[in-house]
Amino acid sequence: MGLVLLGSYLTVPQSDAPVSASVIGIATGIASGVAYAMYTVLAQKSVETLHPVPFTWLSFATTLGLSVLSLLIWRGEDAQLLWLPLWIGSCFSAVFTFVGHLLTNIGIRLVGASSASLIGSTNPALTVVLAWVAIQEALTPLQLTGVLLVTLSVALLSREHR
User: Which of 35, 79, 118, 146 ranks highest by number of CB atoms within 10 Å?
Assistant: First the structure.
């Protein structure tokens, strides 16, 4: 698992941001990891008695409600935005997010929270590969090493769990 974390760290692009911004990013990253771990455990317990589809709808509705609440609290600057493309992109994002959550919850029901979390730990590496394919972002040798390290580590850990 340590190699997965090291590989995930290596996939992060280097930044010239001030140290205080890095500390905030690290803290929110750790908090999101803890929240995701709690979510997978809750999902495993919930899908034992509830089908994954209603559980996903409930989870998705909660996320949507909290997102709307955050927009009411933080309004941002009044900028001239192209609202139609934002709405279309938001709708596509919502559909793909729902499908992703549904597949995750079905996977948790089938293989358990620990194995699903292990598979989910490949997200940073897959994000780097997707950025490379979709927007032709240049990858550094360090990032490529991180992607390979995460992929090999998850493959080795999945063999260990069998």
Answer: 146
pLDDT tens by residue, 4-33 = 667 766 766 666 656 666 677 778 877 887
Instruction: Give the other-Cβ count within 10 Å of 45's Cβ.
Output: 12
**Residue 96, C-beta contacts closer than 8 angstroms, at least 6 positions apart:** none
> What is 134-158 written as a DSSP string?
HS-----HHHHHHHHHHHHHHHHHH
CA distances, 8 to each of 39, 61, 75, 76, 113 (Å): 20, 30, 33, 31, 20
Q: How far apart are CA 50 and CA 54, in angstroms?
A: 7
| Phi, psi angle pair for 109, to nearest 5° | -65, -35
Domain boundaries, the chain: 16-120
Q: What is the mean pLDDT of the chain?
A: 76
**Tokens at 160, concatenated:** 């260990």
Maximum mean pLDDT: which of 59-63, 123-127, 147-151, 154-158: 59-63
pTM of the model: 0.56
The whole-angstrom separation of Cα 37 and Cα 78 is 36
